[in-house]
Specification:
By secondary structure, the chain is mostly helical. The protein is built from 8 helices and no strands. The protein has one domain.
Length: 224
C-alpha cells in the first residue's frame, strides 16, 4: 500500500512542469509580484551597467584628449576661445565654466580666493551627473535578496497550506510550492549580485575620475 502511494506521488511529481514560465504561472499574486519586481529591477540594473560602461570609456578618452590639447595650447584664454559652443566632456565643462569666472573677475583681487571654491563646486556638479543612478544599484544590491526571501517565505507558506488542505505530504503536493519559493530567491540573487559588483566598480571609477578632475584643477590654478 505504501509503495503504491509512493509510486503515485513520484508519478505526479514527474508530470509536473518545473519550467520557469510554469513556475511563474502557477504562483499566486504575491509571488508573481515579487518575481516581476525582481525581473524589472534586474533589467534596469543591467541597462544602467551598460550605460555607465559606455560613459566611463567615453569620458576617460575625452579627458585624455582634452588635457593633451590644453597643455599644448599657447594660453588658457586662447584655448577657451577656440572651444566649441557645445561640449559634453566633464573636464572641458569644468574648464569652460571656471574660465568664464576668470574672465569676468580678472580685475578683482579676490579671484585667487574665489576660484578654488568655484572649481570645487564645478567638480561636484560634474560628478553628480556621472554618479547618477548609483543609488538604484545600491538599493537593488541591498534589498533584492530580501525581496526574493519574502517570496520564498510566502511560497513555503503556500506549500504548507496545500499540505494542510489536502492532508497529503507527498512530493507532488510540496514540490511545486517549494520550487516557486526557491525561484524567487534565485531571482533575488540574480538581481543583487551584478548590482553590487557594478556599484563597487563604478564607485571606484568615479573616485579615480574625480581625482583626475581635481588634479587638473590644481594645475589650472597654477597658471591662472
Amino acid at each position: 500500500m505504501e509503495a503504491d502511494i509512493s509510486s503515485q506521488a513520484v508519478g505526479l511529481a514527474s508530470n509536473t512542469d518545473f519550467s520557469i514560465i510554469s513556475l511563474f504561472l502557477r504562483a499566486d499574486i504575491i509571488v508573481k509580484s515579487v518575481i516581476i519586481i525582481l525581473i524589472v529591477s534586474s533589467v534596469y540594473s543591467w541597462a544602467i551597467i551598460f550605460d555607465k560602461i559606455r560613459v566611463f570609456r567615453k569620458i576617460n578618452k575625452s579627458a585624455d584628449e582634452f588635457e593633451d590639447k590644453f597643455w599644448k595650447s599657447k594660453s588658457a584664454e586662447t584655448f577657451y576661445n577656440n572651444l566649441p559652443a557645445s561640449i559634453d566632456d566633464p573636464m572641458a565643462q569644468l574648464f569652460k565654466t571656471s574660465m568664464q569666472t576668470v574672465i569676468k573677475s580678472r580685475s578683482r583681487s579676490s579671484l585667487s580666493e574665489k576660484l578654488p571654491g568655484i572649481l570645487e563646486i564645478n567638480i561636484e556638479k560634474q560628478m553628480s551627473t556621472i554618479d547618477k543612478n548609483y543609488t538604484f544599484l545600491a538599493t537593488v544590491g541591498s534589498t533584492a535578496p530580501f525581496i526574493g526571501l519574502f517570496g520564498t517565505v510566502w511560497g513555503i507558506m503556500n506549500s504548507f497550506q496545500s499540505i494542510a488542505i489536502s492532508r497529503n505530504t507527498s512530493l507532488a503536493i510540496v514540490a511545486p510550492g517549494i520550487a516557486e519559493a526557491l525561484f524567487a530567491t534565485a531571482l533575488g540573487l540574480l538581481a543583487a549580485i551584478p548590482a553590487v559588483v557594478a556599484y563597487n566598480k563604478f564607485s571606484s571609477d568615479s573616485k579615480k575620475y574625480s581625482q583626475k578632475l581635481e588634479n587638473f584643477s590644481k594645475r589650472f590654478l597654477t597658471i591662472v
